[in-house]
Specification:
Length: 182
């Protein structure tokens, strides 16, 4: 099953994406046994192993804004990522396990997909590597640009004059300025 969405990033650029939910019974070991810890009757948690006959895996494909959006290619990539289950890598584990095969239904998978699309649109950093750092850098650059734009013209002229000084001249200006402020 697939669901589409669009991330509108910090710069207002659209990134179409596809989420794939793969519900399957052939995903782990031949016995489909996984460890579940800390079960007791009061807390409804189990310490031991349980047979997991069905699981749902999620794969996401986000279009790079420099590329042309190809929905079919996005679906193939998302499906490939959903199939990339690795029990040793938490990011490649199932989004949902069920101890009874009938618990995972089409409406449940559709709801899971809708929730995943919502999560990705609200937190693009969850699927775009380095997104939060790029956003912080972009916001800092915008703040710096705004600061420069709001600087009075006479200070801009002075700044230009100072930038044209050699290091010895600049040193003299700093000494004179510090003597005047003292």
């Amino acid at each position: 099953m697939f669901e589409k969405g669009v991330i509108i990033d910090f710069a207002g650029v659209e990134h179409p994406f596809v989420v794939c939910a793969l519900s399957t019974s052939s995903f782990q070991t031949e016995s489909n046994i996984v460890s579940i810890t800390n079960y007791d009757v009061k807390s409804n948690m189990y310490d031991g192993e349980a047979d997991i006959p069905r699981a749902v895996f999620i794969g996401v494909s986000v279009c790079n804004p420099t590329d042309k959006w190809d929905e079919e290619k996005g679906k193939m990539i998302a499906l490939s990522k959903a199939k990339g289950f690795k029990p040793t890598a938490p990011e490649k584990s199932a989004a949902l396990f069920a101890t009874r095969a009938g618990l995972i239904s089409e409406p449940l998978v559709k709801a899971l997909l809708a929730k995943e699309v919502q999560h990705i649109t609200e937190d693009p950093g969850s699927v775009i590597k380095g997104y939060n750092q790029m956003k912080a850098r972009y916001e800092q650059e915008r703040a710096d640009k705004k600061y420069i734009e709001e600087t009075p013209e006479d200070l801009k002229v002075l700044s230009e004059q100072l930038s044209n000084l050699n290091s010895e001249q600049l040193k003299r200006v700093l000494i004179v300025a510090s003597m005047k402020s003292a």
